[in-house]
Amino acid sequence: MTTTSNTGEIFGEAGSFSHEPVFHYINGRFQAGQAGRSFETLNPATNQPLAQVAEGLTEDIELAVRAARKAFDEGSWPRLSTSERAQVLMRIAEAIEAHADEIAQLEVYDVGMPITQARSQAARTAENFRFYARVIQNLAGEAYQVGKRFLNYTLYKPVGVAGLIMPWNTPLMLSSWRIAPALAAGNTVVLKPAEWSPLSADLFAHLLDESGLPAGVFNVVHGFGESCGAALVAHPGVNLIAFTGETTTGKTIMASAAATLKRCSVELGGKSPVIVCADADFEQAVDAAVFGIFSLNGERCTAGSRLLIEEGIYHDFVEAVAKRTAAIRVGDPSDPQTELGPLIHPEHLARVQGYIAAGQQEGARLMVGGARPHGLTQGNYLQATLFADVKPGMRIFQEEIFGPVLVAMPFRDEAEAIKLANAVRYGLAAYVWTRDIGRAHRIGQDIEAGMVWLNSQNVRDLRTPFGGVKESGIGHEGGHYAFDFYCNLQTIHMALDRHAIPRFGVE
Protein backbone atom coordinates (compact mmCIF):
# COMPACT_ATOMS: atom_id res chain seq x y z
CA MET A 1 0.00 0.00 0.00
CA THR A 2 1.25 3.50 -0.81
CA THR A 3 0.11 6.96 0.11
CA THR A 4 0.59 10.10 -1.92
CA SER A 5 1.21 13.49 -0.33
CA ASN A 6 0.14 16.86 -1.64
CA THR A 7 3.72 17.67 -2.61
CA GLY A 8 4.16 14.71 -4.93
CA GLU A 9 6.04 12.18 -2.82
CA ILE A 10 5.03 8.53 -3.01
CA PHE A 11 5.96 6.29 -0.10
CA GLY A 12 5.88 2.55 -0.56
CA GLU A 13 7.54 -0.55 0.83
CA ALA A 14 10.92 -0.33 2.57
CA GLY A 15 13.59 0.82 0.14
CA SER A 16 10.99 1.76 -2.47
CA PHE A 17 10.49 5.44 -3.07
CA SER A 18 9.83 7.78 -5.95
CA HIS A 19 9.50 11.52 -6.13
CA GLU A 20 8.23 13.89 -8.76
CA PRO A 21 10.84 16.16 -10.36
CA VAL A 22 12.27 18.75 -8.00
CA PHE A 23 12.29 22.35 -9.20
CA HIS A 24 13.80 25.59 -8.01
CA TYR A 25 11.58 27.88 -5.94
CA ILE A 26 12.15 31.45 -7.07
CA ASN A 27 10.01 34.50 -6.37
CA GLY A 28 7.08 32.37 -5.22
CA ARG A 29 7.14 30.00 -8.22
CA PHE A 30 8.39 26.47 -8.75
CA GLN A 31 10.34 26.40 -11.99
CA ALA A 32 12.89 24.46 -14.02
CA GLY A 33 16.39 25.80 -14.53
CA GLN A 34 16.98 28.32 -17.28
CA ALA A 35 19.27 25.88 -19.09
CA GLY A 36 16.82 23.00 -18.67
CA ARG A 37 19.45 20.78 -17.05
CA SER A 38 18.82 18.31 -14.23
CA PHE A 39 20.67 15.76 -12.13
CA GLU A 40 19.69 12.51 -10.43
CA THR A 41 19.73 11.74 -6.71
CA LEU A 42 20.07 8.26 -5.22
CA ASN A 43 18.48 6.34 -2.36
CA PRO A 44 21.41 5.49 -0.04
CA ALA A 45 19.80 2.19 0.97
CA THR A 46 19.64 0.92 -2.61
CA ASN A 47 21.55 3.41 -4.79
CA GLN A 48 18.47 3.42 -7.00
CA PRO A 49 17.27 6.78 -8.42
CA LEU A 50 15.10 8.92 -6.16
CA ALA A 51 14.35 12.01 -8.22
CA GLN A 52 15.37 14.26 -11.07
CA VAL A 53 16.39 17.65 -9.70
CA ALA A 54 16.65 20.92 -11.58
CA GLU A 55 20.30 21.96 -11.86
CA GLY A 56 20.85 25.59 -11.00
CA LEU A 57 23.51 27.61 -12.80
CA THR A 58 24.58 31.25 -12.70
CA GLU A 59 21.43 32.45 -14.47
CA ASP A 60 19.19 30.74 -11.91
CA ILE A 61 21.13 32.28 -9.04
CA GLU A 62 20.74 35.64 -10.79
CA LEU A 63 16.94 35.25 -10.86
CA ALA A 64 16.79 34.16 -7.22
CA VAL A 65 19.06 36.94 -5.95
CA ARG A 66 17.15 39.50 -7.99
CA ALA A 67 13.89 38.32 -6.41
CA ALA A 68 15.37 38.32 -2.91
CA ARG A 69 16.94 41.74 -3.48
CA LYS A 70 13.65 43.25 -4.61
CA ALA A 71 11.78 41.66 -1.70
CA PHE A 72 14.29 43.21 0.70
CA ASP A 73 14.66 46.62 -0.92
CA GLU A 74 11.00 47.20 -1.82
CA GLY A 75 8.93 44.54 -0.07
CA SER A 76 7.10 44.38 3.22
CA TRP A 77 9.09 41.66 5.01
CA PRO A 78 11.95 43.71 6.50
CA ARG A 79 9.48 46.49 7.34
CA LEU A 80 7.14 44.34 9.39
CA SER A 81 7.30 44.56 13.15
CA THR A 82 9.17 41.78 14.91
CA SER A 83 5.88 40.45 16.29
CA GLU A 84 4.41 40.25 12.78
CA ARG A 85 7.43 38.31 11.51
CA ALA A 86 7.26 36.10 14.58
CA GLN A 87 3.67 35.19 13.75
CA VAL A 88 4.78 33.94 10.32
CA LEU A 89 7.61 31.93 11.87
CA MET A 90 5.13 30.33 14.26
CA ARG A 91 2.93 29.34 11.29
CA ILE A 92 6.00 27.80 9.65
CA ALA A 93 6.69 25.81 12.83
CA GLU A 94 3.09 24.59 12.87
CA ALA A 95 3.35 23.53 9.22
CA ILE A 96 6.55 21.60 9.94
CA GLU A 97 4.86 19.83 12.85
CA ALA A 98 1.86 18.98 10.68
CA HIS A 99 4.19 17.40 8.11
CA ALA A 100 6.71 15.96 10.58
CA ASP A 101 6.17 12.36 9.52
CA GLU A 102 6.62 13.24 5.88
CA ILE A 103 9.77 15.24 6.61
CA ALA A 104 11.20 12.33 8.60
CA GLN A 105 10.42 9.88 5.78
CA LEU A 106 12.12 12.16 3.27
CA GLU A 107 15.27 12.28 5.38
CA VAL A 108 15.22 8.48 5.60
CA TYR A 109 15.04 8.03 1.84
CA ASP A 110 17.24 10.98 0.91
CA VAL A 111 19.99 10.67 3.55
CA GLY A 112 19.72 7.16 5.01
CA MET A 113 19.02 8.51 8.49
CA PRO A 114 17.28 5.94 10.75
CA ILE A 115 13.60 6.82 11.09
CA THR A 116 13.58 7.25 14.88
CA GLN A 117 16.43 9.75 14.64
CA ALA A 118 14.81 11.47 11.65
CA ARG A 119 11.65 12.06 13.68
CA SER A 120 13.61 13.80 16.42
CA GLN A 121 15.32 15.99 13.81
CA ALA A 122 11.94 17.01 12.36
CA ALA A 123 10.77 18.03 15.84
CA ARG A 124 13.94 20.07 16.35
CA THR A 125 13.34 21.82 13.03
CA ALA A 126 9.96 23.08 14.21
CA GLU A 127 11.42 24.13 17.55
CA ASN A 128 14.13 26.18 15.83
CA PHE A 129 11.43 28.34 14.22
CA ARG A 130 9.46 28.65 17.44
CA PHE A 131 12.60 29.58 19.32
CA TYR A 132 13.60 32.41 16.97
CA ALA A 133 10.02 33.66 16.84
CA ARG A 134 10.40 34.22 20.59
CA VAL A 135 13.96 35.56 20.57
CA ILE A 136 13.40 38.20 17.88
CA GLN A 137 10.61 39.78 19.92
CA ASN A 138 12.92 40.13 22.92
CA LEU A 139 15.96 41.36 21.00
CA ALA A 140 16.78 44.88 22.11
CA GLY A 141 19.60 47.33 21.73
CA GLU A 142 21.20 49.38 24.46
CA ALA A 143 20.82 53.02 25.47
CA TYR A 144 23.56 55.26 26.85
CA GLN A 145 22.63 58.50 28.56
CA VAL A 146 25.21 61.28 28.83
CA GLY A 147 23.78 63.38 31.61
CA LYS A 148 20.96 65.53 30.26
CA ARG A 149 22.88 66.42 27.11
CA PHE A 150 22.81 63.27 24.94
CA LEU A 151 21.03 59.97 24.49
CA ASN A 152 22.78 57.34 22.37
CA TYR A 153 21.15 54.03 21.50
CA THR A 154 21.68 50.97 19.29
CA LEU A 155 19.38 49.26 16.82
CA TYR A 156 19.42 45.80 15.24
CA LYS A 157 18.62 46.06 11.52
CA PRO A 158 18.40 43.34 8.85
CA VAL A 159 21.41 43.15 6.56
CA GLY A 160 19.88 42.21 3.21
CA VAL A 161 20.07 39.02 1.13
CA ALA A 162 21.42 35.95 2.91
CA GLY A 163 22.92 33.16 0.83
CA LEU A 164 22.74 29.85 2.71
CA ILE A 165 24.78 26.86 1.50
CA MET A 166 23.74 23.91 3.58
CA PRO A 167 24.98 20.35 4.25
CA TRP A 168 23.54 16.93 3.51
CA ASN A 169 23.79 15.12 6.86
CA THR A 170 20.68 16.48 8.63
CA PRO A 171 19.55 18.74 5.82
CA LEU A 172 16.39 20.46 6.99
CA MET A 173 17.20 20.71 10.69
CA LEU A 174 20.63 22.23 10.08
CA SER A 175 19.22 24.55 7.42
CA SER A 176 16.58 25.75 9.87
CA TRP A 177 19.34 26.93 12.24
CA ARG A 178 20.20 29.46 9.54
CA ILE A 179 16.85 30.09 7.85
CA ALA A 180 14.92 30.85 11.05
CA PRO A 181 17.17 33.64 12.42
CA ALA A 182 17.79 35.05 8.94
CA LEU A 183 14.05 35.45 8.35
CA ALA A 184 13.33 36.53 11.92
CA ALA A 185 15.79 39.39 11.53
CA GLY A 186 14.02 40.59 8.37
CA ASN A 187 16.49 39.35 5.76
CA THR A 188 15.55 37.59 2.57
CA VAL A 189 17.06 34.22 1.71
CA VAL A 190 18.48 32.21 -1.17
CA LEU A 191 19.04 28.62 -0.07
CA LYS A 192 21.37 26.25 -1.93
CA PRO A 193 20.73 22.76 -0.50
CA ALA A 194 23.31 20.01 -0.78
CA GLU A 195 22.97 18.22 -4.11
CA TRP A 196 22.94 14.80 -2.41
CA SER A 197 19.91 15.66 -0.23
CA PRO A 198 17.49 18.08 -1.94
CA LEU A 199 14.11 16.57 -1.06
CA SER A 200 13.35 18.04 2.37
CA ALA A 201 14.28 21.51 1.08
CA ASP A 202 11.76 21.02 -1.71
CA LEU A 203 9.03 20.06 0.76
CA PHE A 204 10.01 23.01 2.95
CA ALA A 205 9.63 25.37 0.00
CA HIS A 206 6.08 24.05 -0.50
CA LEU A 207 5.30 24.63 3.17
CA LEU A 208 6.61 28.20 3.06
CA ASP A 209 4.70 28.80 -0.16
CA GLU A 210 1.53 28.07 1.82
CA SER A 211 2.55 30.00 4.95
CA GLY A 212 1.90 33.54 3.74
CA LEU A 213 5.55 34.46 3.30
CA PRO A 214 5.76 37.17 0.59
CA ALA A 215 7.16 36.12 -2.80
CA GLY A 216 10.92 36.51 -3.07
CA VAL A 217 11.58 36.41 0.68
CA PHE A 218 12.61 32.75 0.52
CA ASN A 219 14.11 31.11 -2.57
CA VAL A 220 15.67 27.72 -3.28
CA VAL A 221 18.12 26.96 -6.07
CA HIS A 222 19.38 23.39 -6.38
CA GLY A 223 22.73 22.55 -7.87
CA PHE A 224 26.40 21.81 -7.37
CA GLY A 225 28.87 23.77 -5.30
CA GLU A 226 31.30 24.49 -8.13
CA SER A 227 28.64 26.17 -10.27
CA CYS A 228 25.51 27.03 -8.28
CA GLY A 229 27.13 27.60 -4.88
CA ALA A 230 30.06 29.53 -6.31
CA ALA A 231 27.71 31.84 -8.22
CA LEU A 232 25.76 32.56 -5.03
CA VAL A 233 28.94 33.42 -3.10
CA ALA A 234 30.25 35.68 -5.88
CA HIS A 235 26.99 37.55 -6.54
CA PRO A 236 27.31 41.24 -5.59
CA GLY A 237 23.64 41.37 -4.57
CA VAL A 238 24.21 38.93 -1.70
CA ASN A 239 25.21 40.43 1.66
CA LEU A 240 25.67 37.35 3.86
CA ILE A 241 26.98 33.85 3.27
CA ALA A 242 26.34 31.09 5.79
CA PHE A 243 27.98 27.76 5.04
CA THR A 244 28.04 24.45 6.86
CA GLY A 245 30.36 21.82 5.45
CA GLU A 246 33.93 20.74 4.87
CA THR A 247 36.83 22.96 5.94
CA THR A 248 38.57 23.24 2.56
CA THR A 249 35.33 24.33 0.91
CA GLY A 250 34.77 26.86 3.69
CA LYS A 251 38.17 28.43 3.01
CA THR A 252 37.34 28.71 -0.69
CA ILE A 253 34.00 30.35 0.08
CA MET A 254 35.55 32.91 2.41
CA ALA A 255 38.22 33.79 -0.16
CA SER A 256 35.57 34.30 -2.84
CA ALA A 257 33.28 36.28 -0.55
CA ALA A 258 36.10 38.67 0.31
CA ALA A 259 35.97 40.15 -3.20
CA THR A 260 32.58 41.71 -2.40
CA LEU A 261 33.15 42.07 1.36
CA LYS A 262 30.40 39.65 2.29
CA ARG A 263 29.96 38.75 5.92
CA CYS A 264 30.59 35.00 6.38
CA SER A 265 29.57 32.47 9.02
CA VAL A 266 31.17 29.10 8.39
CA GLU A 267 30.61 25.98 10.50
CA LEU A 268 33.19 23.48 9.32
CA GLY A 269 34.69 20.13 10.26
CA GLY A 270 35.30 18.51 13.59
CA LYS A 271 37.37 15.78 15.22
CA SER A 272 35.94 16.00 18.71
CA PRO A 273 37.60 14.25 21.67
CA VAL A 274 35.77 12.28 24.35
CA ILE A 275 37.95 12.26 27.47
CA VAL A 276 37.06 9.51 29.95
CA CYS A 277 38.80 9.69 33.32
CA ALA A 278 39.20 6.69 35.60
CA ASP A 279 36.65 8.04 38.08
CA ALA A 280 33.93 8.60 35.46
CA ASP A 281 30.49 7.01 35.62
CA PHE A 282 31.58 4.00 33.56
CA GLU A 283 28.23 2.91 32.11
CA GLN A 284 27.03 6.40 31.28
CA ALA A 285 30.34 7.25 29.62
CA VAL A 286 30.08 4.08 27.51
CA ASP A 287 26.54 5.05 26.49
CA ALA A 288 27.72 8.53 25.49
CA ALA A 289 30.79 7.31 23.62
CA VAL A 290 28.77 4.84 21.53
CA PHE A 291 25.82 7.12 20.81
CA GLY A 292 28.01 10.15 20.15
CA ILE A 293 29.77 8.58 17.17
CA PHE A 294 27.24 6.12 15.76
CA SER A 295 24.05 8.21 15.88
CA LEU A 296 23.12 9.95 12.61
CA ASN A 297 25.27 7.28 10.90
CA GLY A 298 28.40 8.98 12.23
CA GLU A 299 27.77 11.79 9.74
CA ARG A 300 27.72 14.64 12.26
CA CYS A 301 30.15 17.48 12.83
CA THR A 302 30.04 17.20 16.64
CA ALA A 303 30.55 13.44 16.72
CA GLY A 304 32.87 12.26 19.51
CA SER A 305 35.21 10.52 17.10
CA ARG A 306 38.38 10.37 19.27
CA LEU A 307 38.02 8.39 22.48
CA LEU A 308 40.76 9.26 25.00
CA ILE A 309 40.71 6.95 28.05
CA GLU A 310 42.75 7.11 31.25
CA GLU A 311 45.24 4.23 31.42
CA GLY A 312 43.78 2.60 34.52
CA ILE A 313 40.47 1.79 32.82
CA TYR A 314 41.63 1.75 29.19
CA HIS A 315 41.37 -2.01 28.59
CA ASP A 316 38.01 -2.47 30.31
CA PHE A 317 36.48 0.62 28.71
CA VAL A 318 37.60 -0.26 25.19
CA GLU A 319 36.27 -3.78 25.61
CA ALA A 320 32.90 -2.44 26.80
CA VAL A 321 32.68 -0.06 23.85
CA ALA A 322 33.71 -2.83 21.47
CA LYS A 323 30.96 -5.12 22.78
CA ARG A 324 28.34 -2.42 22.28
CA THR A 325 29.71 -1.44 18.87
CA ALA A 326 29.51 -5.01 17.61
CA ALA A 327 25.87 -5.19 18.68
CA ILE A 328 24.70 -2.03 16.87
CA ARG A 329 21.79 -2.81 14.57
CA VAL A 330 22.70 -1.86 11.00
CA GLY A 331 20.00 -2.00 8.36
CA ASP A 332 17.02 -0.48 6.59
CA PRO A 333 16.70 3.11 7.87
CA SER A 334 12.89 2.91 7.65
CA ASP A 335 12.87 0.17 10.30
CA PRO A 336 12.38 1.65 13.81
CA GLN A 337 14.79 -0.98 15.20
CA THR A 338 17.67 0.25 13.03
CA GLU A 339 20.37 2.20 14.85
CA LEU A 340 22.82 2.70 11.97
CA GLY A 341 21.66 3.23 8.40
CA PRO A 342 23.55 3.53 5.12
CA LEU A 343 25.99 6.33 4.41
CA ILE A 344 24.59 8.94 2.07
CA HIS A 345 26.41 8.23 -1.20
CA PRO A 346 28.76 5.69 -2.81
CA GLU A 347 31.48 8.35 -3.03
CA HIS A 348 31.25 9.02 0.68
CA LEU A 349 31.25 5.29 1.51
CA ALA A 350 34.44 4.88 -0.53
CA ARG A 351 36.00 7.82 1.33
CA VAL A 352 35.22 6.30 4.74
CA GLN A 353 36.46 2.89 3.61
CA GLY A 354 39.69 4.58 2.54
CA TYR A 355 40.21 5.80 6.10
CA ILE A 356 39.57 2.32 7.49
CA ALA A 357 42.22 0.93 5.14
CA ALA A 358 44.61 3.71 6.16
CA GLY A 359 44.09 2.93 9.85
CA GLN A 360 44.99 -0.71 9.29
CA GLN A 361 48.03 0.17 7.18
CA GLU A 362 49.30 2.57 9.84
CA GLY A 363 49.10 -0.08 12.55
CA ALA A 364 45.95 0.74 14.51
CA ARG A 365 44.15 -2.28 16.00
CA LEU A 366 40.81 -2.88 14.27
CA MET A 367 38.62 -4.27 17.06
CA VAL A 368 35.16 -4.19 15.47
CA GLY A 369 33.65 -3.66 12.04
CA GLY A 370 35.38 -2.17 9.06
CA ALA A 371 33.39 -4.00 6.40
CA ARG A 372 29.99 -4.23 4.75
CA PRO A 373 27.43 -5.92 7.03
CA HIS A 374 26.51 -9.48 6.13
CA GLY A 375 23.37 -9.72 3.99
CA LEU A 376 23.28 -6.04 2.97
CA THR A 377 24.54 -6.33 -0.58
CA GLN A 378 23.00 -3.12 -1.90
CA GLY A 379 23.33 0.45 -0.72
CA ASN A 380 26.07 2.22 1.20
CA TYR A 381 26.09 0.13 4.37
CA LEU A 382 29.09 -0.08 6.66
CA GLN A 383 29.53 -1.79 10.01
CA ALA A 384 30.03 0.32 13.09
CA THR A 385 33.82 0.41 13.38
CA LEU A 386 36.22 0.73 16.33
CA PHE A 387 40.00 1.14 16.22
CA ALA A 388 42.09 0.86 19.41
CA ASP A 389 45.73 1.69 20.23
CA VAL A 390 45.70 4.62 17.82
CA LYS A 391 48.68 7.01 17.68
CA PRO A 392 48.41 10.81 17.37
CA GLY A 393 50.20 10.91 14.03
CA MET A 394 47.77 8.54 12.30
CA ARG A 395 45.35 9.93 9.72
CA ILE A 396 42.39 8.35 11.51
CA PHE A 397 43.33 10.36 14.62
CA GLN A 398 43.99 13.64 12.79
CA GLU A 399 41.42 13.84 9.98
CA GLU A 400 37.65 14.05 9.99
CA ILE A 401 36.23 10.75 8.71
CA PHE A 402 32.55 11.77 8.98
CA GLY A 403 31.32 8.22 9.31
CA PRO A 404 30.72 5.46 11.89
CA VAL A 405 34.38 5.09 12.84
CA LEU A 406 35.61 5.57 16.42
CA VAL A 407 39.31 5.65 17.34
CA ALA A 408 40.60 5.06 20.89
CA MET A 409 43.87 5.56 22.74
CA PRO A 410 45.00 5.85 26.38
CA PHE A 411 46.33 8.85 28.29
CA ARG A 412 48.43 8.95 31.47
CA ASP A 413 47.28 12.09 33.22
CA GLU A 414 45.30 15.30 32.90
CA ALA A 415 48.08 17.14 31.07
CA GLU A 416 48.41 14.44 28.43
CA ALA A 417 44.64 14.26 27.94
CA ILE A 418 44.54 17.98 27.17
CA LYS A 419 47.57 17.73 24.89
CA LEU A 420 45.99 14.91 22.89
CA ALA A 421 42.62 16.67 22.74
CA ASN A 422 44.28 19.75 21.23
CA ALA A 423 46.59 17.86 18.87
CA VAL A 424 44.37 18.30 15.79
CA ARG A 425 43.53 21.26 13.56
CA TYR A 426 39.86 21.19 14.52
CA GLY A 427 38.14 22.69 17.55
CA LEU A 428 34.38 22.27 17.39
CA ALA A 429 33.22 20.16 20.33
CA ALA A 430 34.64 18.12 23.22
CA TYR A 431 33.27 15.85 25.95
CA VAL A 432 34.75 15.19 29.40
CA TRP A 433 33.68 12.43 31.81
CA THR A 434 34.84 12.57 35.43
CA ARG A 435 33.21 12.73 38.87
CA ASP A 436 35.79 15.32 39.96
CA ILE A 437 33.99 18.57 39.13
CA GLY A 438 37.11 20.70 39.54
CA ARG A 439 39.00 18.43 37.17
CA ALA A 440 36.11 18.53 34.67
CA HIS A 441 36.23 22.32 34.54
CA ARG A 442 40.02 22.47 34.34
CA ILE A 443 40.14 20.07 31.41
CA GLY A 444 37.12 21.60 29.71
CA GLN A 445 38.49 25.13 29.86
CA ASP A 446 41.92 24.06 28.56
CA ILE A 447 40.52 22.26 25.52
CA GLU A 448 40.61 24.27 22.29
CA ALA A 449 36.96 23.85 21.32
CA GLY A 450 34.00 26.14 20.82
CA MET A 451 31.72 23.87 22.87
CA VAL A 452 32.48 21.47 25.73
CA TRP A 453 30.04 19.10 27.42
CA LEU A 454 30.98 17.95 30.94
CA ASN A 455 29.44 14.62 32.02
CA SER A 456 26.89 15.14 29.28
CA GLN A 457 26.09 13.92 25.83
CA ASN A 458 25.58 16.52 23.06
CA VAL A 459 22.38 18.11 24.38
CA ARG A 460 21.75 21.45 22.69
CA ASP A 461 20.53 24.51 24.55
CA LEU A 462 19.30 26.83 21.78
CA ARG A 463 20.08 29.86 23.91
CA THR A 464 23.82 29.17 23.80
CA PRO A 465 26.21 29.89 20.92
CA PHE A 466 27.05 27.06 18.52
CA GLY A 467 30.38 27.31 16.73
CA GLY A 468 34.00 26.25 16.71
CA VAL A 469 37.55 27.53 16.80
CA LYS A 470 40.67 26.78 14.75
CA GLU A 471 39.68 25.08 11.47
CA SER A 472 36.20 24.24 12.71
CA GLY A 473 34.87 27.59 11.63
CA ILE A 474 34.19 31.25 12.26
CA GLY A 475 30.99 32.65 13.71
CA HIS A 476 28.27 31.41 16.01
CA GLU A 477 24.63 30.43 15.71
CA GLY A 478 22.20 30.07 18.59
CA GLY A 479 20.27 32.42 20.84
CA HIS A 480 20.76 36.13 20.42
CA TYR A 481 24.30 35.44 19.20
CA ALA A 482 22.94 34.59 15.74
CA PHE A 483 21.76 38.18 15.31
CA ASP A 484 25.33 39.44 15.54
CA PHE A 485 25.59 37.89 12.07
CA TYR A 486 22.10 38.34 10.62
CA CYS A 487 21.77 41.97 11.72
CA ASN A 488 23.65 45.20 11.31
CA LEU A 489 24.11 47.16 14.49
CA GLN A 490 23.38 50.85 14.10
CA THR A 491 24.10 53.55 16.67
CA ILE A 492 21.88 56.64 16.89
CA HIS A 493 23.37 59.68 18.61
CA MET A 494 20.85 62.29 19.74
CA ALA A 495 21.44 65.63 21.42
CA LEU A 496 18.83 66.47 24.05
CA ASP A 497 19.77 70.12 24.26
CA ARG A 498 21.97 72.67 22.57
CA HIS A 499 25.64 71.97 23.13
CA ALA A 500 28.83 73.77 22.30
CA ILE A 501 30.24 73.07 18.84
CA PRO A 502 33.61 74.53 17.76
CA ARG A 503 32.89 77.30 15.25
CA PHE A 504 35.34 77.07 12.39
CA GLY A 505 35.44 79.83 9.78
CA VAL A 506 33.97 82.56 12.00
CA GLU A 507 35.78 85.91 11.87
From TrEMBL:
GO terms for biological process: 4-hydroxyphenylacetate catabolic process. The active site is at E267. Keywords: NAD, Oxidoreductase. PROSITE patterns: ALDEHYDE_DEHYDR_CYS, ALDEHYDE_DEHYDR_GLU. The keyword NAD applies. GO terms for molecular function: 5-carboxymethyl-2-hydroxymuconic-semialdehyde dehydrogenase activity. Gene3D superfamilies: Aldehyde Dehydrogenase, Chain A, domain 1, Aldehyde Dehydrogenase, Chain A, domain 2. Pfam families: Aldedh. It comes from the Bacteria. The keyword Protein transport does not apply. Residues 33-492 form the Aldehyde dehydrogenase domain. InterPro entries: Ald_DH/histidinol_DH, Ald_DH_C, Ald_DH_CS_CYS, Ald_DH_CS_GLU, Ald_DH_N, Aldehyde_DH_dom, DH_HpaE. Signal peptide: none annotated. NCBIfam families: HpaE. Belongs to the aldehyde dehydrogenase family. This is 5-carboxymethyl-2-hydroxymuconate semialdehyde dehydrogenase. It comes from Ktedonosporobacter rubrisoli.
